[in-house]
Amino acid sequence: MNANVNVNVNAKAKATAAPPLLTVRGLKVVVGGRHILHGVDLDVAALGTTALLGRNGAGKTTTVRGILGLVPRTGSVRLDGEETVHLATHALVRRGVGYAPEDRGVFAALSVAENLRLAERPGAGEPAYGLVYELFPELRTRARQAAGTLSGGQQQMVAIARTLLNGNRLIIADEPTKGLAPKVVTEVARVLERAAETVPVLLVEQNLAVVRRLARHCAVIADGRTAHRGPAAGLLDDPDAARRLLGVGHAHPHTRPHTQPHARPPAHPGTVQDQEAEA
Ligand SMILES: Nc1ncnc2c1ncn2[C@@H]1O[C@H](COP(=O)(O)OP(=O)(O)OP(=O)(O)O)[C@@H](O)[C@H]1O
What we know:
Rossmann fold, disordered N terminus, globular, 11 helices
């Protein structure tokens, strides 16, 4: 074995051995008297992307909101070993947790530059505009454009860019490719892939092609509980498990999980190709 191979093997072994950055155990959430999460267990790896999967209405967004303290929760949420389940959302943000929500949360009337400036966090060091504009050159050229006039893909880029500005330790992205045209999905996936080289990402994603490309690990939520944890490729390559856990006949690259019977109407039925292109 030559020296280079040795270095690679050691780096890989180190990555595998690194303790998870985020450890969630027995996470429970009750909203309006309704038990939505009954006990979610999840590890977010200290490197790369961890996917949070599940059928529509399984509890993925509620898990993310529970981690962030956006809904009342019990259980354990450890960030780098520190228990955070009692912390308010702003305290988690100060500890370096960045969030790109499902609705993107851009301020429509403000320009791209103003949206980014609002995300700057005092005390977090110099904002990483260099990184942001390297990953999203378009945001520089559109700096003065009102965010509400951007396409869905461009708004998603603003949402992800905001999480990268402050040297965060963890990025949580909730369905960043939802409703985007296939070409834009590829672009967003490429950016997330680059981002995950420097910051670990917890990715809620229904597009299994994106999961296959980005995620090394995954957790599957079903009916408010963790139904599976393990390597993402292992799940996607196992048709029986994919059918049982995600409701897909086989994990075809573009397949999205089906809705559960009697669940609320799907927010994003069909495949990515079926969806209306969002220019
Ligand atoms: N504020 C709320 N009040 C009542 N029920 C809620 C609330 N938020 C979520 N739910 C319900 O909790 C369940 C889980 O919802 P959640 O949005 O977490 O699922 P999800 O897996 O993210 O779904 P999707 O893939 O469709 O976004 C659903 O049945 C949903 O209707």
